[in-house]
Specification:
Blueprint: E1 10-18, H1 29-38, E2 43-46, E3 64-74, E4 81-87, H2 102-111, E5 115-118, H3 128-132, E6 139-144, H4 145-151, H5 157-165, E7 171-175, E8 189-194, H6 199-208, E9 211-214, E10 219-224, E11 228-236, E12 238-242, E13 249-251, E14 265-271, E15 278-284, E16 290-292, E17 296-297
């Protein structure tokens, strides 16, 4: 598995889950592009409901703008719907897309070359059985900022831990799910490491783990060897090394006489987990905003 800090290229900030007036959003595609450009984004993906919205004729203002879709499928344990987001689509959805079966929909969208992830698992009240019952998807939304601001159901890191504990090392994507009924944008994004500013390169990075996710902090550097995990980031209040095992992990609070730490952390060394152990890093700033690495398996990948 690739990790972005071991890759060459530049960091691109992107919005992966965005709605426009082409479905139930309240801003036109051009207004959406303008809003994200003004917030310092490098790319944006239109993911309207059940419709592929193109970028033809838009003034992209130097951003990479491309298409995706959000599709709903029935069949969850609690009777809600699976919401699937596909990023990197050209042309309309195929007429034979089976929206009754989440698995058939995932397979179809993957065959079209898209990166497919499960939207807002907490907001949808998905269970471990729901997530384990599907396969062939790239990951889940670890943060859906719109859901978090609207109903406090946007942080799905617990669902991610469940999957990691079952050795399902899926990726975690932070998104907005912006509909523009209120200021539900610029709250969750991915930072993609790529040597090319193109939709093809961005989709490739999203499919291979060449990114991290954030709702605020930046992770500048990550190095992992057999003994140490070294992290350099923007000022944060806490750093967590999370393992999907009961009672396992490490936090920067151990450096303090009593938590929370009084100082802001920018650079930190942590003991490396045992070889073969899967883990992830989560950092939290003073405002409670988080950033997440994707899963790392100790001893299998040297990140430096």
């Amino acid at each position: 598995m690739k990790h972005p800090w071991s890759m060459s290229g530049e960091w691109l900030k992107g919005a992966l889950h965005v709605h426009t007036t082409e479905s139930d959003g309240r801003r036109t595609p051009q207004e959406v592009v303008d809003a994200y450009k003004d917030c310092g984004y490098d790319f944006v993906v239109f993911t309207d409901h059940n419709k592929v919205t193109g970028a033809e004729g838009l003034e992209t203002r130097g951003m990479v703008v491309f298409s995706g879709v959000e599709v709903s499928c029935q069949g969850t344990e609690f009777g809600s719907s699976f919401h699937l987001v596909a990023v990197g689509l050209d042309g309309p959805l195929p007429e034979d897309l089976d929206r009754d079966s989440a698995q058939a929909t995932i397979d179809c969208l993957r065959n079209l070359g898209a990166v497919v992830f499960i939207a807002h698992p907490y907001w949808s009240l998905l269970t471990l059985g729901d997530l384990m019952g599907l396969h062939n998807y790239h990951g889940i939304e670890v943060l859906n900022a719109g859901c978090e601001w609207e109903t406090r159901h946007g942080d799905s890191s617990q669902h991610w831990s469940w999957l990691m504990e079952r050795d399902r090392e899926v990726f975690a994507y932070a998104v907005d799910d912006s509909h523009w009924g209120f200021a539900d944008f610029a709250g969750g994004w991915v930072m993609v490491r790529t040597g090319e500013r193109s939709s093809v390169a961005i989709v490739k990075a999203l499919a291979s783990g060449g990114f991290y996710s954030s709702g605020g902090p930046t992770i500048e550097e990550l190095r992992v060897d057999s003994e140490t995990v070294y992290l350099r980031c923007s000022p944060v209040a806490a750093v967590y090394l999370i393992m999907p095992r009961a009672g396992r992990g490490w936090t920067s609070h151990r450096l303090c006489k009593q938590p929370p730490c009084e100082r802001e952390l920018i650079e930190l060394e942590m003991p490396a987990p045992p070889e073969g152990q899967c883990f992830r890093i989560e950092v939290v700033d003073g405002q409670g905003r988080k950033a997440w690495t994707n899963a790392i398996r100790a001893g299998e990948v040297d990140v430096r």
